[in-house]
Design a protein that fits this description.
Blueprint lengths: L12 H8 L6 E4 L6 H9 L5 E6 L2 H10 L7 E5 L5 H7 L5 E7 L4 H5 L25 H7 L2 H10 L5 H14 L5 H11 L11 H11 L2 H12 L3 E11 L2 H17 L2 E3 L9 H6 L7 E7 L1
Parallel strand pairs: 1-2, 1-4, 2-3, 4-5
Antiparallel strand pairs: 5-7, 6-7
Helix pairs in contact: 1-2, 7-8, 8-9, 11-12
Bound molecules: S-adenosylmethionine.
The site of S-adenosylmethionine has 22 residues, from helix 2 and strand 2.
Length: 296
Amino acid sequence: MTEPQYTHVSVLADETVDLLITEKKGTYVDATLGMGGHTARLLAALPQEANVLGIDWDPEMAGVAARNLAPFGERVKIAQGNFANIDEIVAREGIRSLSGALFDLGISSLHFDKPSRGFSLKHDGPLDMRINPDNPLTAYTIINQWPYEQIEHLIRVCGERHSGRITRAVLEARRVKPLETTAELAALIAKVAPARGEKIHPATKTFLALRVAVNYEFDNLTRGIQKIMPLLKPGARMGIITFHSLEDRIVKETFRIMAKMGGWELVTRKPVKPSEAEVLTNKRARSAKLRVIEKL
Ligand SMILES: C[S@@+](CC[C@H](N)C(=O)[O-])C[C@H]1O[C@@H](n2cnc3c(N)ncnc32)[C@H](O)[C@@H]1O
């Protein structure tokens, strides 16, 4: 059977290109390459002399991006790795300084749409959720092995009001047999914490919490920002697109501290949000926020 064609529509693409480019002939890093949409837009807006290093933690995604970006030839280099180690990745590529950096956080539409990756509420798949399949921790381990306190805390801090009820149901179910699939978990949550007028599926916040924990997303974000700071040239900008309030809070607070410390200036005092037109054509954009900071 042939693999379906996955697509990913880049969020806030015009705004990102407008706000990130300060030097025409520089080297930029796209720390979350995905299918290469933002990188393609950056390269198209820059002259031939400029290039982009694209990084993705997921080897599958790095492969997809390599195919999509082939028309740009030598202007794009692709590296597989965790942006938490961005200093090492950039050094390995022989790059000493950067003219700009983009982080478009989270996962790609391919991750959501490919059932075998186990991220989706819509498609049944294994409880996996690893961005990098070499990662030892999976959603299965959390759901079937973590103690009550840890699961309850994890989903509560990610905004789930019914954290106690959901965790009790998980522990009860796994006493009989392990929970194996995304559909099993989603159905269990819908049963014990049914939606009451909310537009989102009752398991949305639990799924987000599991993904964040499996991939150490907050830790990676903090480390990625810290590691990239010394690599940016004066005048270079860092842009970060977030998709939920917890990661936006980290970016907002980190940028605020950077600006207060000196040597950095906020380019966006308020986050840039997608237009109504963008949200109408791309539902995934509805919660996006772009924040940009410049090195002085
Ligand atoms: C929202 S998608 C990026 C989409 C991309 N900007 C585009 O336009 O096609 C986020 C990507 O970041 C990758 N990613 C997530 N965490 C990462 C990390 N810690 N290091 C490197 N890549 C990461 C995911 O695998 C995913 O492909």
